């Protein structure tokens, strides 16, 4: 990886780690469901020029968009509002575990005992964190929050299955469709479950919410995803994927420095098990991918979606 590419990847991890903290802070001012319902239409409008109709692919795009652009954010943002940015970022690593399980069940991939060990370690870590109710400073309902975040990562893992089957769609065009579908999907839970959608407009919360929306749309989505896709076209996914752990690191760091969140020894133990389990899964996946590529005589494929 070239220095410029490494610096860009670091910037993405910092931006997404900071986003976890911003979500925790802003959902104290506005309902997380309302926030998602406001964010996705703005993103859809910005990316509207990239929309293209893809015959034979639209059903898969719609399902992927519902999972990646609507359900995941509704679950995860609500979960973060009930826990903390630090805990939320650690529990969100369960995506790697769930995606691996789905790859075995639905894609018939083979998983050895080492990756199974990693899955078990990560799941035990999530369980330890989810049951640390008395240790979680700033959490309103830790078990429910952790459960909702896992629901969010499950939605993303489900969306990933459909993304793998989408062909001939450019990444940013796919992101645009996810924003459009996500706008429709996120409107339903916001309309049914959230209250006082625009109560923040008349108070001192207006500008914090607007600035947070700007960060979510411009920094987390436009800059983050555009840069990430750019890197995927130039750097092996096996190198980029483990960097996701840096997002957790920065979320914990910023949560501690900016929100005063604290980690107890019980939560440190749970986080360590999650991170170590994810590392084991990623390392074994990298080795397996390289072995398959060598056996098939394939060159490295670029531009694949994560």
TrEMBL record:
Broad class of where this protein is predominantly found: membrane
GO CC terms of this entry: membrane
Listed transmembrane segments: 35-54, 61-80, 86-107, 116-132, 144-163, 175-193, 205-223, 235-257, 263-283
Pfam families found in the cross-reference section: EamA
Name of the protein described by the UniProt record: DMT family transporter
InterPro entries in alphabetical order: AA-Vitamin_Transporters (IPR050638), EamA_dom (IPR000620), EmrE-like (IPR037185)
Entry keywords, A to Z: Membrane, Transmembrane, Transmembrane helix
Protein's cellular compartments: Membrane
Membrane topology: Multi-pass membrane protein
Family, as annotated: Belongs to the EamA transporter family.
Domain EamA per the UniProt entry, residue ranges: 7-130, 144-282
């Amino acid at each position: 990886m070239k220095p410029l590419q490494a610096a860009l990847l670091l910037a993405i991890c910092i931006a997404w780690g900071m986003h976890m903290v911003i979500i925790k802070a802003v959902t104290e001012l506005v309902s997380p469901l309302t926030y998602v319902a406001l964010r996705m239409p703005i993103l859809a409008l910005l990316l509207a020029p990239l929309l293209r109709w893809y015959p034979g692919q639209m059903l898969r795009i719609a399902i992927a968009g519902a999972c990646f652009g609507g359900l995941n954010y509704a679950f995860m943002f609500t979960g973060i509002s009930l826990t903390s940015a630090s805990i939320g970022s650690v529990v969100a690593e369960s995506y790697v575990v769930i995606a691996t399980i789905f790859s075995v069940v639905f894609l018939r991939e083979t998983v050895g005992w080492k990756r199974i060990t990693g899955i078990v370690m990560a799941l035990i870590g999530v369980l330890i964190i989810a049951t640390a109710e008395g240790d979680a400073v700033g959490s309103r309902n830790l078990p429910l929050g952790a459960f909702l975040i896992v629901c969010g990562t499950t939605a993303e893992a489900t969306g990933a299955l459909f993304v793998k089957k989408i062909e001939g769609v450019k990444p940013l065009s796919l992101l645009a469709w996810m924003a459009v579908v996500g706008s429709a999907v996120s409107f339903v839970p916001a309309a049914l479950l959230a209250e006082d959608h625009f109560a923040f407009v008349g108070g001192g919360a207006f500008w914090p919410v607007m600035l947070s929306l700007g960060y979510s749309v411009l920094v987390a989505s436009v800059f983050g995803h555009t840069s990430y896709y750019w890197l995927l076209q130039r750097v092996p996914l096996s190198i980029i994927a483990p960097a996701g752990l840096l997002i957790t690191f920065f979320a914990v760091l910023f949560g501690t420095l900016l929100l005063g969140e604290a980690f107890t020894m019980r939560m440190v133990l749970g986080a360590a098990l999650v991170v170590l389990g994810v590392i084991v899964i990623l390392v074994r996946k990298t080795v397996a991918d390289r072995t398959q590529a060598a056996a098939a005589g394939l060159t490295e494929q670029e531009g694949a979606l994560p």
